[in-house]
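## Example record

The block below lists the input lines for one assembly entry, exactly as stored, with component labels intact.
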Amino acid sequence: MTSTASVSLCILCGEPATDAIDPPRRTLARGLDPGDPSYSVTVILPDIALCAEHSLGVRHGERLVGWCDDQRCRTYGALGEPSACGLPYAKLDPTKRN
Ligand SMILES: [Zn+2]
Ligand SMILES: [Zn+2]
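Predicted structure tokens for the full assembly:
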């Protein structure tokens, strides 16, 4: 057996993901680096991994995806649902700058 790259899992149900869709926005400004005031931290968000069923749901707007930017998570999940750190997944507003 050759080792394969880690399989992405659907962010909504944990089944192996068959699809990856673009997030509503690609970057997330995290503000200034406290150790270097001249440097602002911008995060590049990954694709949203989804199984076939949830990919359809998200594309049709039936399921909403949020992001938890807590350093313990930094993952996608169902919008408004509590993430692993306890904070709910927050909406990724495509127009907001910060
Ligand atoms: Zn799924
Ligand atoms: Zn979290």
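Strands lie at 19-21, 27-33, 36-44, 48-50, 65-68, 75-78, 90-91. The two ends are 45 Å apart (CA to CA).
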